[in-house]
Design goal:
alpha/beta; 6-stranded parallel β-sheet; 8 helices; about 45% helix; binds farnesyl diphosphate
Length: about 230
């Protein structure tokens, strides 16, 4: 069983168009898939479920879609307060917090604090996130620490994989074992570029609003049949 599953939830817009509806209708429907997949992940003993909900590039979508998506996430995540408490789920967001509206951020931080000691599963919503942003912010924080060490006459922190990973926004979270992408697209789209170095990828044509636990189970089954060698010989 994978410890960490990450999902690129794709295809809400196309699903809405198929129904003759606006894009936000698809995002709304996608919330039901989020709920079902979270429940299923917790039931199957997955420790970390991360969901790519809004990329750095998504800020360039039309204003009404951006504000609609933010409102929807605000409403659906904060509405699950009781579910998180009852099911012992820790909630976190990862991404560029500086770009989020202050009222949304304050509520999110409150929910993160309230659920911080929950231990059954961690649900991570990747919000205003991109892989290049993550690597860049890690590099600048490391550079700042080096500058500070030099200024203070202290030892400069040596750099290796593990040290660099500790500067990433996902520090302390195991790299994803499995990445699922819905809607038939087969690319990484600037997502967890460092963290997916040895991740198994699973692509499905199912559009996100149609993706349910049965589809999730199929992805887990495929994962279980993979032979992970990490560049070594078995
Ligand atoms: C990609 O579909 C989906 C998104 C950019 C948004 C995903 C957000 C949700 C499902 C809302 C709820 C989220 C949480 C965490 C409660 P797309 O719009 O790119 O679809 P398209 O490729 O068909 O246009």
């Amino acid at each position: 069983m994978p410890r960490h599953v990450t999902i690129i939830m794709d295809g809400n817009g196309r699903w809405a168009r198929q129904q003759g509806q606006q894009r936000l209708f698809g995002h709304n429907a996608g919330v039901d898939s989020v709920r079902d997949c979270c429940e299923y992940a917790a039931e199957t003993g997955i420790e970390y479920l991360s969901l790519f909900a809004f990329s750095s590039e998504n800020w360039n979508r039309p204003e009404d879609e951006v504000s609609g998506l933010m409102k929807l996430m605000f409403k659906s995540v904060l509405g699950e307060r009781e579910t998180f408490r009852k099911n012992n789920i820790r909630f976190r967001i990862i991404g560029d917090r500086a770009r989020l509206a202050p009222d949304l951020l304050a509520e999110i931080v409150k929910l993160e604090d309230e659920t911080a000691s929950n231990s059954r599963m961690t649900l991570i919503v990747m919000l205003s996130y991109s892989g290049k942003w993550d690597i860049t912010q890690a590099a600048s924080r490391y550079a700042a620490d080096v500058a500070e060490a030099v200024r203070a006459g202290k030892e400069v922190p040596a750099l290796d994989d593990n040290v660099f990973a500790s500067y990433l926004s996902t520090a302390g979270i195991p790299d994803p074992d499995l990445m699922i992408r819905t809607s038939g697209e087969q690319r990484i789209s600037n997502y967890m570029l460092w963290q997916c170095a040895y991740t198994e990828f699973y692509f499905t044509d199912v559009l996100w609003p149609d993706f349910r636990r049965t589809d999730f189970a199929r992805a887990l089954e495929a994962y279980c049949s993979r032979d992970r060698r990490y560049g070594k010989i078995k």
